[in-house]
Design brief:
The chain is built from 12 helices and 16 strands. By secondary structure, it is an alpha/beta fold. About 2% of the residues have low confidence.
Length: 325
């Protein structure tokens, strides 16, 4: 697994100073912070526009229906076509674009569940199931090309109105990540970059933790590079904890040159303390639970979510537990 681009230089709008943004020390996962109006979304779209065939921008305002549409499928056949459909911070058809991408994926690969052909649908479904514990998504070679089932009731999800804002958010953004990465695998892309703009919108801190782990898994599985723009210290904490030294944080300032800072033990511990998932437990009178290892973190972070007992869960390494005591 390699870092495809350690440096990137792209045009900067005149009202932000003009010239070029010059980014350095980029990592497998680079988290971009900055105040409102600093140009984070514009930066991500500028990176995408420099090579739309190998770069995909997931915009922050994501609307639309849970349905596939042949017209939307045709409009996403190339990266340039996808880029032309995402020139702003919002899309009223984002969800339809994502679910229509299943058709495009099946057109290029078929629903053959064998490892001899890259991009096995079962692998995509498995990655999604780790991120979406409440839902099961099945890719199928028939009409409709997918089925979403709510596991608790066994009911098929056919309308976005039956989902909460957070459920609709993480269902579609998770699917967008694995489908785009799967398409790049089929196309043999050598240096793909996924650009994710404010994925924490509508997501509770525990889901931000889960999304951070999911992005790290996608980087490992598909060999993609990821740039995430966010204001969330919870998401930053999750990406730093699960990604380790493969994660860096870059603060976008008024200057043209910005450099990423690689995560280390100190930065990981600081972001864990700043992350909302830790503070929420103490604010609501819940005890803090220190857990060691990703498996324990994944299990225990679900306990407060399901109302069994209220806990604030903090990920730790073995020696850190003694320090935190």
């Amino acid at each position: 697994m390699a870092i495809h681009h350690e440096t990137i230089e792209v045009g900067r709008p005149a009202f932000l100073g003009g010239g070029n943004w010059k980014l350095s020390a980029l990592n497998h996962i680079t988290v971009v912070f900055g105040r409102n109006g600093a140009g984070k979304s514009l930066l991500l779209r500028a990176i995408r526009d420099a090579d739309p065939e190998q770069r995909h921008y997931i915009l922050p305002e994501r609307l639309g229906a849970i349905s596939s549409n042949l017209t939307h499928t045709q409009q996403q056949r190339s990266g340039t076509q996808r880029a032309n459909r995402a020139t702003q911070n919002f899309s009223t058809d984002y969800r339809t674009d994502v679910f229509s991408k299943i058709d495009l994926y099946l057109m290029r690969r078929g629903n053959i569940r064998e490892e001899r052909i890259p991009g096995d649908p079962a692998e995509l479904e498995q990655l999604l199931s780790e991120f979406l514990p409440d839902f099961q998504l099945t890719i199928q070679g028939e009409e409709p090309p997918f089925q979403v089932t709510r596991i608790a009731t066994g009911e098929a999800v056919q309308r976005v109105e039956s989902l909460s804002s957070g459920e609709a958010e993480y269902l579609t953004i998770g699917l967008d990540v694995v489908l785009q990465a799967g398409l790049w695998t089929l196309e043999g892309r050598t240096a793909p970059i996924l650009l994710v703009d404010e994925p924490d919108e509508h997501l509770h801190p525990d889901l931000q933790q889960r999304f951070g782990q999911f992005l790290v898994r996608a980087v490992e599985h598909f060999g993609i590079q990821v740039v995430v723009a966010t204001h969330s210290t919870t998401l930053l904490s999750a990406l730093g904890h699960h990604g380790g030294d493969r994660t860096s944080v870059l603060y976008l300032t008024a200057g043209a040159e910005c450099s990423g800072q690689q995560f280390d033990d100190i930065l990981e511990e600081l972001t864990a303390c700043l992350g909302g998932h830790v503070l929420m437990g103490a604010l609501f009178g819940a005890p803090l639970l220190l857990v060691e290892g990703d498996d324990d973190m994944r299990i225990w972070s679900q306990v407060p979510r399901h109302g069994v007992v209220q806990l604030g869960v903090i990920p730790c390494k073995g020696e850190q537990i003694k320090q935190h005591r």
